[in-house]
Design brief:
The structure is a homodimer of 467-residue chains. The first copy, chain A, has 467 residues and is of the alpha/beta class. The first copy, chain A, has 14 helices and 16 strands. In chain A, the strands form 2 sheets. An 8-stranded mixed sheet of chain A has the order 1-10-12-11-13-16-14-15, sandwiched between helices. In chain A, strands 3-2-9-5-6-7-8-4 form an 8-stranded mixed sheet, with helices on both faces.
């Protein structure tokens, strides 16, 4: 391995003149030596990767790890110990207070038409208030948007509002379908509470027609406590059935019961591990995902994969003897799902400490086969990263374009110039997202490893070429 | 829908001058109207697709359909009826005699070290002879290649030869890993039979470390009957364990028993449905997959997906009112897995009838998310198809390059200029390939539908632009 890297270093040295020349000419900056390093990073990840066995532990031995839960604390301790055992130059916990919402007993829901009872697969949305102990029961008004609910206004009083706008199937990227629907989950209760509704039920955020309810964050904004009504998600099969039955039985009765509650904020941590830069130790590139997850599954794809890939990036550097010029940090953010406190805290601390972050990479779109990167950067850096396309395309990374960086790194925007999201294939993501079937067995080992290698390759290039 | 297509036809008419001009200038031939049609094909497949429900029936109601089996006959009847029900212009069966190999009783294998017995997950390879009724038992010689076995020669006498060269993990495309190993399965028995071995066991052809044995075709070539020894695949977990134990216990005893046999050739059929061309009815473009499968799973990915996608291509044309200029045929080939008789028969008949085939598209790499097309064509046609890249890239089709066309269409090579293979993502394919876990639940609806739309878009462009 050592000889290989001496060869690479020589190649880099010999090719640096060409490389510098091409920067001036605005031509691709990468060279043959880079392509050898990138190939080696992929080789290591695929033949000697650790991400899959780490994910097995995080998913199966720790499991779902909602902020404030004992499992979230176990995940913090696991992440810290793992990075210390790997011998990263510095590993520490960054304290952050997080919301502490608990689901309580398993929710119950059904609707009745006369004496016929239809069971409904349901789960409380994160942040929701509970129903009264005996549940709520009422007629249902089906709507397709927040605006439609607002327009109905007082007609909603005493009813259960059912938000049922489905994912748009014809969009190729499923994140766009999600973006087009998720306002119902996030804001349904907030906009209808003032009309004295009994509660809100929302069609699960997925393309898949199955019986898994998908949880996720909702919020009440600053509405008064007495307007806060319980909100829940129902499975797409239940939503389709309810919608169908409502057409002929508009007065059917829907019942649901949930006992979730919000406890006082709890202490938790971001977990940070770093390889100190050889030339610019006070300048940072971060790579991260979020350590918390929802509680229904084991959080394998959301975002266990991002966590293990981020740690793997640093290990792949170690393994291949790559000494980064800048300090590279793996950041395991806490509380992306229902508060983003970890992402905000990291950015606050970075600002307070005058840390110079030149780039941040996030993996929070599942552990699927690589497609590319989504880049939120100035024109110069965007062009630079796009110029690496020919180097990355052989690994399936074709879609390297301007776009959103990521939730956990977005608060860093003022502190850095370049935010990047790793972009795997999106077709299966919402089959599992926030549901009980987001489990380790849904992750393919090679797809996960290809993602880790893709991220390592990008961090390597950023470290070498980003100004 | 009709108005939409009148608009598209007008657009095509208005843009034909530009299009013709750009052919002469060797610039991209496609135009705005094409991009609208392609978009519409994807919209239809994703919002109103039938391929997933067809595959559900083929996989779950018919199941594994090895050539000559009752299920293969049921699949023939199903395919014929489906295409007739869809109202294709012409649907018929093309008779072909196929090999008829049957597995018999479930195979048994184990090895023993002293009194300790280790069970082994095993399956006979397709085409193998049986063991004697009481099985075979002997010492094992592990080798990593046909050449290594040949070199050992007489030292193999009375032994069981264990071919254990694993997939190369560092190759990005898993088909290359398969191609680098499959000679062991295909030729292991053929090259060692002359040395009087008891039998051959082969490591399963997969990256995945699990307990599924993967079957597949093997052959004896023209060796004498008395040199034909039984051949089987063992799971990768069993292969790793056996290899590990052999290091310390080179004299351990391996036992296996299989009762497979080759019956006389059986009558079967290719199933063909066509939409007659409006301008060139005697010129053909085919789109196909293979209707037979191995018997262990239900053949969902191999190649149920190719079958339903091929039929869906024609249905998407119908649904969108596209009248092809050339005759488009969906060809459901019989016997790709253990004989290729269907592919050969189709090419023979095409030649005999002087049919002018201008292109053939095959889908036989699983129903995964689209990546591109692999093209076996002359330089002019290759360049033409590659010029469509910008039109197809928004659908994930970036990898449009020269390569192999496909097993079932390869015999057509003398009769046509352009063979194309649909290329989905390959990472998961060999997790299921020829094994008991190649089942319907492994297919994602959207990935399947995106593949069908990708194929329809390509056939549409071939129909309009290929000379």
């Amino acid at each position: 391995m050592k000889h290989f890297f001496i060869a690479v270093i020589l190649l880099i040295a010999f090719s640096s003149f060409n490389s510098l020349k091409s920067v001036k000419n605005s031509e691709p900056t990468v060279n043959k030596a880079d392509s050898i390093v990138v190939r080696q990073l992929f080789n290591s990840a695929l033949s000697n990767g650790k991400s899959y066995q780490w994910l097995d532990h995080l998913s199966n031995n720790i499991g779902g790890r909602l902020s404030g839960s004992p499992q979230a604390q176990q995940a913090v301790e696991w992440g810290e110990k793992l990075m210390k055992d790997l011998g990263f130059d510095k590993v520490w916990l960054q304290p952050v207070m997080v919301p502490h919402w608990v689901r309580g007993e398993k929710e119950v829901a059904y609707f009745t038409i006369g004496k016929i009872k239809y069971d409904v697969a349901i789960c409380a949305l994160g942040g929701s208030v509970p129903t009264p102990k005996k549940g709520v029961s009422g007629e249902v008004v089906e709507v397709n948007s927040l605006a439609e609910a607002e327009a109905l206004g007082e007609k909603l009083r005493g009813k259960i509002v059912f938000f049922n706008r489905p994912f748009e199937d014809t969009l190729i990227e499923t994140f766009k379908s999600y973006g087009g629907c998720v306002d119902q989950r996030g804001g349904g209760a907030k906009v209808t509470g003032k009309f004295g509704v009994l509660g809100v039920i929302v069609r699960s955020m997925t393309h898949s027609i199955d019986n898994f309810p998908h949880t996720g964050a909702m919020g009440y904004g600053d509405i008064p406590d007495n307007e806060k009504v319980p909100a829940a998600a129902i499975s797409t099969i239940a939503a389709n059935l309810l919608s169908e039955k409502l057409k002929e039985n508009p007065n059917l009765k829907f019942y649901f019961k949930q006992s979730c509650e919000t406890l006082p904020d709890a202490p938790s941590f971001n977990v940070i591990g770093e390889m100190t830069g050889s030339e610019f130790p006070d300048t940072y590139i971060t790579v991260g995902g979020h350590l918390d997850s929802w509680d229904l599954g084991d959080g394998a794809h959301d975002d266990g994969t991002g966590i293990v890939q981020s740690i793997e990036v640093l290990r792949l550097f170690q393994l291949n003897g790559i000494k980064p010029k800048h300090t590279i940090r793996a950041v395991l953010f806490m509380n992306e799902e229902n508060g983003l406190r970890g992402g905000r805290k990291y950015a606050e601390e970075a600002k307070k400490n005058n840390e110079n972050h030149i780039a941040a990479l996030e993996s929070d779109s599942g552990g699927f086969t690589p497609r590319g990167f989504s880049i939120d950067a100035n024109g110069k850096n965007l062009a630079l990263i796009k110029s690496w396309k020919s180097l990355l395309a052989p690994y399936g990374l074709h879609d390297i374009n301007e776009g959103y960086g990521g939730a956990d790194i977005d608060p860093l925007k003022a502190e850095t110039t370049t935010l990047i999201s790793y972009k795997p294939d999106s077709q299966r993501y919402f089959d599992y997202h926030h549901a009980a079937n987001d489990t380790f067995d849904k992750v393919n080992k090679r797809e996960l490893e290809l993602g880790a290698a893709s991220m390592a390759a990008l961090v390597y290039l950023l470290d070498n070429y980003l100004q």
